[in-house]
Write a structure and sequence with these properties.
84 residues; mainly alpha; 3 helices; elongated
Length: 84
C-alpha cells in the first residue's frame, strides 16, 4: 500500500535471489508437488518472516495516511473503498 505502482501487487520479498537455497521446481507427481509445497512453506516461514521483521512492515501501517493520494491509489484497482 501507499505506493505509486498502479497495479494489484504487494511490494516485498521475492524468491529469485534464493533459488540456490530453495528448489521450487516440480514434476507432475504427488511426491514432487509435496516437495515443492514444503520448499515454499519453508521459504515463507524463514525468509518471508525475516524480511517482514527487518522492514518492520507493521510499524509502517501507522504512517499510511501521510500520503492519502497513494493510499487511495492502492485501493482503486480492487475497487475497495478506503475504510474510515
Amino acid at each position: 500500500m501507499s505506493d505509486s505502482f498502479d497495479a494489484i501487487a504487494l511490494n516485498g520479498i521475492d524468491s529469485d535471489s534464493f533459488r540456490t537455497k530453495y528448489n521450487f521446481s516440480f514434476e507432475p507427481t504427488e511426491e514432487s508437488g509435496s516437495h515443492c509445497v514444503n520448499q515454499m512453506t519453508r521459504f515463507i516461514q524463514i525468509e518471508g518472516s525475516n524480511w517482514f521483521n527487518q522492514t518492520k512492515a507493521l510499524s509502517k501501517l501507522d504512517t499510511l495516511d501521510n500520503n492519502s493520494e497513494l493510499v487511495s491509489n492502492s485501493y482503486k484497482p480492487l475497487r475497495i473503498k478506503k475504510p474510515n
